[in-house]
TrEMBL record:
PANTHER family: 2-OXOGLUTARATE (2OG) AND FE(II)-DEPENDENT OXYGENASE SUPERFAMILY PROTEIN-RELATED
Keywords, comma-separated and alphabetical: Iron, Metal-binding, Oxidoreductase
Record bears the keyword Electron transport: no
Gene Ontology terms for molecular function: metal ion binding; oxidoreductase activity
Protein name: Clavaminate synthase-like protein
Organism this protein belongs to: Lentithecium fluviatile CBS 122367
Domain named Fe2OG dioxygenase: residues: 183-287
Length: 354
């Protein structure tokens, strides 16, 4: 088990593919210990090439270098209703009592055509992606190809991680197969400007302290630190330093609920006081939106009641979105009203988006 106050360990995931039963069992035990402790670990030895990781991170930076007016043409709040495209700074507020968050994002998912049942039935985050125009980004086709290749490889890796998670719970390796079929996952390119050194005290966050909404998250970090995980044993914030080629993996609220709180969806945040721009790419694996989640086998004693009722994947994830975006919208509306009463005129981009 990770020691108290220790940053999430780096595990060699190649043991899953190696055919070495002892190495695979050791990986299962290490993942189980992480899930019981802080719900976070890093993995190397996976099947996502370093070169592809570097290319998508390069596109991450290139996208956010576009002028704001060009990014706003594919704003997720005005160009569509299925949560794809650009997200303005200060759109979200995950930690109550803080300021809206100092990050901008770009939402990407599987390329779902408007004829697909998921789009027709308005399923979770399902629809066509929104891309910059050729006019604004002449090599946008390479951006698309790189992003979708990376997305699908990470989704495949998430399915392999779920096989390991099944084994940690003494279930069959393919226990989560029905859940992962026709799964929804959301990728976000993220950019955090550097914050003033005193910004934690002033409640400014890149991302406020929160837990993720879905099942598991796979995060690619660039070279600049800022991610912190709360250690429940020591009551300290631990830095998760970027490791070349590694993914940070953490459990979300849905997995914690599914395991009857046996496994931990842990609090984490981003505070970038490095003096440099930070970039990262999380992929949030939610699962089949219609799949009904209820207490997993082996996660409650005989005769013991489950802590949570049945819920679909879609219901669980949408509830998390509603809370965090609604909180930011309320904050900005209140700020605009106060400015109006004081005779000030708030900046349009500060109050116009949720």
């Amino acid at each position: 088990m990770p020691g108290a106050g220790a940053a999430p360990p780096i595990l060699d995931f190649s043991a899953f593919y190696s055919g070495d039963a002892a190495a695979k069992q050791k990986l299962v035990e290490d993942v189980r210990n992480c899930c019981l402790h802080n719900g976070f670990f890093q993995i190397t030895g996976h099947a996502v090439p370093l070169e592809l990781q570097q290319r998508i991170m390069g596109w991450n930076k290139k996208f956010f270098d576009l002028p704001l007016e060009q990014k706003m043409k594919i704003n997720k709040d005005t160009s569509n209703t299925w949560n794809r495209g650009y997200e303005l700074f200060k759109s979200q507020m995950l930690e109550e009592g803080t300021l809206p968050e100092l990050k901008e994002g770009f939402y990407i998912g599987d390329e779902i055509p408007k004829t697909h049942p998921y789009f027709i039935n308005k399923k979770l985050n399902s629809g066509p992606n929104m891309w910059p125009s050729l006019e604004h980004m002449p090599d946008v086709e390479d951006f698309k190809a790189t992003a979708l290749d990376y997305y699908h490889r990470v989704v495949d890796l998430a399915k392999d991680i779920l096989k390991v998670l099944a084994l940690t719970l003494d279930l069959e390796e393919n226990w989560f197969h029905a859940f992962t079929e026709d799964a929804v996952a959301t990728m976000r390119l993220l950019h955090y400007p550097s914050q003033p050194a005193d910004s934690p005290a002033k409640l400014t966050r890149g991302i406020g302290a929160h837990t993720d909404f879905g099942t598991i998250t796979l995060l690619l970090q660039d070279k600049v630190a800022g991610l912190q995980v709360y250690d429940n044993a020591t009551k300290e914030w631990l830095d998760v330093r970027p490791t070349p080629g590694a993914f940070v993996v953490n459990l979300g609220n849905l997995m914690m609920r599914w395991s009857n709180d046996k496994y931990i969806s842990n609090v984490h945040r981003v505070i970038n006081v490095s003096g440099q721009e930070r970039y990262s790419i999380p992929v949030f694996f939610s699962g089949n939106p219609d799949f009904v989640v209820e207490c997993l086998p082996n996660c409650r004693k005989e005769g013991e009641e489950a802590k949570y009722g049945r819920i679909t994947v879609e219901q669980a994830v949408l509830g998390g979105y509603a809370d965090s975006y609604g909180r930011a919208e309320k904050f900005k509306k209140d700020a605009a009203e106060k400015a109006k009463q004081a005779g000030g005129v708030p900046a349009a981009k500060e109050v116009a988006v949720a």
